Amino acid sequence: MIIDVYEYSNQGGRSYNEDSTGHRIEGENGIFVVADGLGGHAHGEVASAAAVETVTTDWTPNVPNRMAWFTEEIAKANANIMGISQQMGDTMKSTIVTLSIDNGMAVWAHSGDSRLYYFHRGWIAAVTDDHSVAYKKYKAGEIDKDEIAFDEDQSALLRTLGGADRFEPDVNGWPELLEPGDAFFLCSDGAWEFLKDEEILIDLLKAENAKHWAELMMLRMMDRIKGGNDNFTLQTIMLS
User: Fold this and answer.
1) What are the pLDDT digits (tens) for 65-77?
2) Tell me: the pLDDT tens digits for 183-218?
């Protein structure tokens, strides 16, 4: 299988960008990461960059138990952020969402509200559950899914990297081999808050490649951004 990937990050309406993104591909295998430094803490860009660097640097293909590897690796990324925080004398926090493709199998992990969407045979097969109070309200039926982005508790995160606890990731995987035509979308909340799930799918079905898919989604976003918006980062992956 051929992996086509495109990544883009923008500071949005903020004075600087605290998001980070990165990936590595070796043949038909790869690691893909998006991290969002928390704006309410110091040096969010340092925290998110440390998270991405830790995972992409340590990744090697064909690890026997990728789920266990992700659990250990995100704990390592958390410890690295805490170490940098101690050196700089500031508290740093970051979300993370990451995907590994090994020999046609996909495993992903996340902590916080950066998301992964998996598309399989023309439908949305999986989406990560945000670790936020707003998402809990949605799951409890208090708000609709489209209201998460604008809920007063959207920024109240229940898990993030950079602390002694509440950093543990949810780790999941697809139980079957990936197929040509499958696709993944990783993004920070500054991106998904302007996009509906069905719109992401529609743009995928129109796209000629990973870059085109990202561009179609960003066109939608530009029509909806009113200024002062958050940093936004997206990574699109298409398999052929």
Assistant:
1) 999 999 999 999 9
2) 999 999 888 899 999 999 999 999 999 999 999 999
Rounded CA-CA distance 133/226 in Å is 25
Residue type at 165 in one-letter notation = D
Axis-axis angle for helices 197-206, 210-224 (nearest 10): 140
The chain-wide mean pLDDT, for the chain, equals 92
Mean pLDDT along residues 27-44 = 86
d(CA 180, CA 167): 34
User: What is the distance between the alpha carbons of residues 95 and 86, in angstroms, rounded to a whole number?
Assistant: 19
Contacts with 175 (C-beta within 8 Å, 6 or more apart), sequence order? none
Which segments of the chain does DSSP mark as H helices, in order? 44-58, 66-88, 133-139, 189-192, 197-206, 210-224
Distance separating the N- and C-terminal Cα atoms of the chain: 6
Amino acid at 77: A
Say which DSSP state 230 is in: P
Other Cβ atoms within 10 Å of 230 Cβ, number: 23
Q: What is the C-alpha to C-alpha distance for residues 216 and 209, in angstroms, rounded to an integer?
A: 11
The set of residues, in sequence order, having a beta carbon less than 8 Å from that of 142 and lying 6+ positions away, is: none
> What is the value of pTM for the model shown?
0.94
Q: Name which residue leads in pLDDT, 37 or 109.
A: 109
